[in-house]
TrEMBL record:
PROSITE patterns: HTH_LYSR (PS50931)
Pfam families for the chain: HTH_1, LysR_substrate
Keyword tags: DNA-binding, Transcription, Transcription regulation
Protein name (record): LysR family transcriptional regulator
UniProt similarity note: Belongs to the LysR transcriptional regulatory family.
Molecular function per GO: DNA binding; DNA-binding transcription factor activity
Keyword presence, NADP: no
InterPro entries on file: LysR-type_TF_proteobact-type, LysR_HTH_N, LysR_subst-bd, WH-like_DNA-bd_sf, WH_DNA-bd_sf
Domain HTH lysR-type: 1-60
UniProt keyword Transcription regulation present: yes
Amino acid sequence: MNKEIELLRIFRVAAESSSFRDAAVRLSTSPQGVTRAIQQLEQHYGEVLFHRSTRQVRISAFGEGLLDQVRPALERFEELWRVPGRDEQTSLSGTVRITAPLSLGTRAVLPALERVAARHPAITLDVRLSDRISNTVEEGIDVGVRLGFMRDSRFVARKAADMKFPIVAAPHLIRKVGVPDTIDALSRLPTTASMDLNTGRPWPWYFKAGRQWTPIAAAIVVDNADMELGAALAGIAFAQLPDYVVAPYIASGKLVRVLEKEESSAWGLYVYRPQRGPVSGRVRAVFDEMLAAVKSLPALR
């Protein structure tokens, strides 16, 4: 069993590294040793885990699926192997810097950090909420939340939730202007536009089959999800918002979901931490609570 666990550990490190050579450095072994381990796993599964060329190594679709299973399994094993209480009190102190989108501030970040503060009062929590894409490494971020699959080898990422992007409106606005039956019909209706702070342009709305639609003559332009939610609840406009923002209001009838058949596939919400060698107890404590909080966000089925 030890051999199999070690093979999977090598696979995880290789998947999170820019090359087999980089993985070998992190594992204190040779690139040939990493290659042999990957080949053994490929023979076992009968699937290619990495596409290799003279210029790069890229994880395969099967490899990505295996990685999603391997990460939590290995982390659970490492947690079970750790001796409870050993240096626990001395390790769980110091500062942990966290970043997340604004819309997750009170919905996930605060509940997670309330639990951390109650259990580990010696940890100082430095929270930076922003919808801008931050330079996580340069800013010294320890734990973050990001939308979309993370392939950056500098980070360890765990998928916490699948997020949908429904189109919603208040019932009294629908009674006034009607329900759009096509995406193009949105052009004739009042909509919100949410500004991408990284580009200075409105975010496009996302639909199935990769289609995008950008509000041209929006009824209201905002720069955060809660203002957009407020505009939808007030009956000012139709809006496209993450399901963790609108699911409670859809359930209560305060918002109505439209164009459901045109919705895009769900996007992943990831909790991540940079690769900086051994993980301190304080970072692990915050990471685990953030993961649990994001997993418990409201969702649409």
